[in-house]
Amino acid sequence: MKAVLNSTAKLSAVAALSSYRNNTASAPASPNPDIDVLSPTKSLPPSPNVLRLRLNPISPSEVLRKKYPNPPPLFLCNSPNKDASRNNTIHPIDFTFRSLLPPPASKLGVNEAYQTADPNNAPQRSIDMQSSLPRPGGSRLPAPSSSSGLPQPHQQPLGDLGESTVNSRIGTFGASTIGKPSALKTPAPSRTLAPMKRPASTLDNNETANDRPAQIARSAISQTGPTAAIKASAVRTTGKSAVAAKPGASRIGGAAKPGLARPQTSMNLRNRQEAVPSPTEEMSADEDKAGSAPYQPKKRSQRAGWDIKGRLADLEEDHREMMDKLADTSQQKDMSSMKVIELETIRATLETKNSHLQSELSRDQAELNKCRMELLEEQRLRRVEADDARRQLLNETDELRRKARDDIDNLERKSKTEVNDLMTKHKFELDELRMAFDRLKMEEAENKRRHAEELSSLKATAARELEDAQQRSRNEILELRNKNELEMSTMKNQYQTEIATLRSTCETELVRVRAELKVETAAHNETKDELAIAQKMNKDMRSTISEQSVNSLNMESSARALRDKICSLESIISERDNSIRLRDGNVHDMRQNLETAMAKLRTEETLRRKLHNQVLELKGNIRVFCRVRPPLEAEAEPAKIDFPDQDEEAKDIKLFSMERSTLGVEAVKEHPFTFDKVFNPASNNNIIFEEISQLVQSALDGYNVCIFAYGQTGSGKTYTMTNKDGMIPQAVDQIFRTATQLTEKGWTYTMEGSFVEVYNENLNDLLGKDTDLDKKKIEIRHDKGRTTLTECTTIPLDGPDMMEEVMRRASNNRMVAATKANERSSRSHSVFILKLAGINSITGEKCEGTLNLVDLAGSERLSHSQATGDRLKETQNINKSLSALGDVISALGGGKEVKHIPYRNSKLTYLLQNSLGGNSKTLMFVMVSPLLAHMSETLTSLKFAKKVSQVNIGTAKKVRVDSASP
Ligand SMILES: Nc1ncnc2c1ncn2[C@@H]1O[C@H](COP(=O)(O)OP(=O)(O)OP(=O)(O)O)[C@@H](O)[C@H]1O
């Protein structure tokens, strides 16, 4: 903006101000037509400290022409029409003065001059607002001293003051230094620089003398402008002396650093400032050019008092010089005004920018708030989502866990079925093969026998036939010969008789015939013919005989044929022999197949062991079964016990007790528990053994197995463990059965059993002599995973019958012990230890397992006050060993972090050291009495069992056998 006010206008403004101060109720009439005194607008509430003036424009063309041969386009920052501004049209300017306090006299200064740059107002006049220095002669000419009110750029460095100073200057030009410049300040500087920007006059009066750095800063501001003030502030901040603020450094266009001289907050603003040519720099150049040295009147020789003319001439000369100087000053002032206007333009631009920035800032803040709200909403949604997801995850985890459990059970069932099927199949196949083999053997023998028989019968038949044929032919020949001979003899005889007869007849007749010989000679001749015929007949007979001979020959040939037949039969027999040999080969192949099948069976047995172990591992190496015994006939009120899932998994049990609240109200309380298996009172020992048979099998497979029965006295521990169909007899029975079956697969097992009692932390041999009870000191030794007991009877078990002997001996000894201490069986732990060692003669595998079946002492807690003497000792020892057992199990569940397992805390845990923990499979029966009277003890037992079931013992390992080469 380039606005130059003529002196009249300024006077009018001053008059308006004073008038306004006197009468704030209404806008005073303007004393000058160029100035409109405006009433406070609606938006600005009436205030004695707010005055709005409208200064009519005055063309600065002359001034501009002087200063700028090519004047830049002028803008009025508050022009309503920017296009008009661009056309060099100057519009009225509104000034708003926020403070109407009169300027201090020192600031108004003597000779506060308001000069117009308007050449139309020439001759230029200086306006003495309030006072002027007395000059020699009493005239009130402006004093040519350094204290003159003439603008002294060096004392008010524009560039360094920034726009606030520009406002002050406008005040100087327009309405004196009326009011504080704060209202006209450019956009607020940064907070750190705010104190530096504050003019000295606005500083608090109540600052103490101790605020030395603040004072230094203030003085720096008043003396040198903000640059020094910044430095002074820096001094204040660092506690250094204000001496560091060198006034010289704050000169206009001097060493003042733009960064410090222009305390802008926005980068844009700074850039804008840098883009606009720095007016202060121009100013500095102008000032340098103008030579702003203060006016000094020429030194002349003192004129005599009477030399009025001379003095007048001096005065006029002085006056001229001063006027010249004044003209220069005025010129400088015009230039300064132009700079001021430029600065005002910049300020207005910056203000606009600032307002834009403010609005942007508020928009951004609103957006930020919106974002924040959105963020909060998003966070809330995310939280809700996360909660949902967590819930879903938990549900899924539960579902998965349930599924995994189901899968494990299914797998277990499946593998059990598979194993059984496999076993059955293999057994069946084996039986079939064996039967096939036997059949083949029998067939082979039968064939051989049949062939031999056939052969012999054929031979005999052939021989017989041959003999018969020969005989027949011989007989025939003989017959024929005899017949022939007979016929021949008969015929001979006949012929001889006939001949004799004939001869006699002939002789008689010879005589007669001789007579008749002649007659008869003829007849004789006839007879001769007849003889010839007979001879012929004889000949025929002979031919018949020869025919018979031929027949005989034929017979011989048939005998030969028979012989051939015999030969062919013999060849058939040899063929059959070959086929038998072939079959023998087949039998051999089948035998080999059988061997392969057996080997496969053995491999599958190993696999089955592995699978079996995996299944048990999946079930957990420590498992807890709960068994509720049925109430006995004589027993009173039963407790309410529910078995919610007996038809499905049979894992849950729910007990109901009456509990009295603190208010004395009785209510039924549910106590739900979940175990690996829950057996209701209807389950018998066989059903229960089915569930543990796999564990028993593990002992055969080379694992250490420990089965406990835990519960209060009378809950059914002994019944479960040592009854005739209890776990111990059934386990031993199964072991023998399985061991026998495994012999086919090359396994041979040796078994030996011990039975000990832990009573009052002492071990007693239940298979030893009853007289040694409580006398022998049995020591426990652990060596490379094997436990041995010194001086303890170990019985080799050759068959299940031996077990009866073992059980009988043990129960005898317990009975003897029971006579020593009442109810001792309930107050001691009995441990049956079955050691199994197996070796496979085919594969060379070896394994060693131990099966420990433990009937624990009654778990009921006897009140110490009731127990005394031996009973107290018993109770203490039972409590000690049971709690030691709990400690060992929970330490085992602690994983690798737990370095020490307190096995040695009781004899029981020390005895079972190798059968508890990572190398073993443990099963605990928690036995439950169904009686209401035992409810409290039952709950205690179930809680203990629950803790045990929550323990996760690591994977069991096979007992390492040094010489094993699996
Ligand atoms: N499942 C069952 N079916 C039938 N009767 C049972 C059953 N369980 C236990 N009993 C009977 O309950 C009574 C107590 O059982 P048992 O002696 O086995 O208890 P216990 O817990 O071993 O007691 P203790 O700690 O005194 O040895 C016995 O008479 C037993 O025959």
From TrEMBL:
Pfam families reported in the protein's UniProt record: Kinesin
Lineage: Eukaryota, Fungi, Dikarya, Ascomycota, Pezizomycotina
Highest taxon of source: Eukaryota
Domain Kinesin motor residue range list: 621-951
Skewed-composition ranges (Polar residues): 115-133, 144-155
Sequence positions that bind ATP: G711, Q712, T713, G714, S715, G716, K717, T718
Region (Disordered) residue spans: 115-212, 232-307
GO molecular function, one term: microtubule binding
Biological process (GO), any one: mitotic spindle assembly
GO cellular component, one term: microtubule
Coiled coil feature spans: 312-486
Protein name, as recorded: Kinesin-like protein
Cited InterPro entries: Kinesin-like_fam (IPR027640), Kinesin_motor_CS (IPR019821), Kinesin_motor_dom (IPR001752), Kinesin_motor_dom_sf (IPR036961), P-loop_NTPase (IPR027417)
Keywords, alphabetical: ATP-binding, Coiled coil, Cytoplasm, Cytoskeleton, Microtubule, Motor protein, Nucleotide-binding
Subcellular location: Cytoplasm, Cytoskeleton
Family assignment from sequence similarity: Belongs to the TRAFAC class myosin-kinesin ATPase superfamily. Kinesin family. KIN-14 subfamily.
